[in-house]
Amino acid sequence: MNLNATLFFQMIVFFVLAWFTMKFVWPPLTKAIEDRRQKIADGLAAADKGKADLAQAQARISLIEASAKSENHARMLEAEKQAAALIDEARREAEAEKARIIAQAKQDAEQEVQRARDGLRDDVAVLAVKGAEQILKREVDAQAHAELLNQLKAQL
């Protein structure tokens, strides 16, 4: 065999193989590599976007949390003010009720004192009549002397 012919045929086979590879094998490989590279780039972009979204979400969460805390604090202050107002109102109502009860008790006591005085006057009038009866040794007619007894009651 001739060395030149072998080299020549090997060169032709090499070029045919190279042409076949470049024409039919290489484009799908480069397309697959580019697709994979694009997927990786998209994934990295999505990851970066996800990190940015996460940072924004955390910022929003911190703002919402701060807002909720301040709102909660404001509600607590408002509730404390309402509680204090309710306590003051209840205290005022209790004082008014106390004053009313004391006034009623004083009025009842005055009425009771007046009844007791009237009862004592009646008792004193009866005792005076009995004493006068004893002194005079005769019976005094209470019906006949009712006006005299009323004047005696009024003086006592």
TrEMBL record:
It is found in: Cell membrane; Endomembrane system. Residues 76-111 form a coiled coil. Pfam families: ATP-synt_B. One of its GO terms (cellular component) is proton-transporting ATP synthase complex. SUPFAM superfamilies: F1F0 ATP synthase subunit B, membrane domain. It is a single-pass membrane protein. Keywords: ATP synthesis, Cell membrane, CF(0), Coiled coil, Hydrogen ion transport, Ion transport, Membrane, Transmembrane, Transmembrane helix, Transport. GO terms for molecular function: proton-transporting ATP synthase activity, rotational mechanism; proton-transporting ATPase activity, rotational mechanism. The chain crosses the membrane at residues 6-26. NCBIfam families: ATP_synt_b, PRK05759.1-2. HAMAP family: ATP_synth_b_bprime (MF_01398). Belongs to the ATPase B chain family. F-type ATPases have 2 components, F(1) - the catalytic core - and F(0) - the membrane proton channel. F(1) has five subunits: alpha(3), beta(3), gamma(1), delta(1), epsilon(1). F(0) has three main subunits: a(1), b(2) and c(10-14). The alpha and beta chains form an alternating ring which encloses part of the gamma chain. F(1) is attached to F(0) by a central stalk formed by the gamma and epsilon chains, while a peripheral stalk is formed by the delta and b chains. Component of the F(0) channel, it forms part of the peripheral stalk, linking F(1) to F(0). The b'-subunit is a diverged and duplicated form of b found in plants and photosynthetic bacteria. This is ATP synthase subunit b. It comes from Neopusillimonas maritima. The gene is atpF.
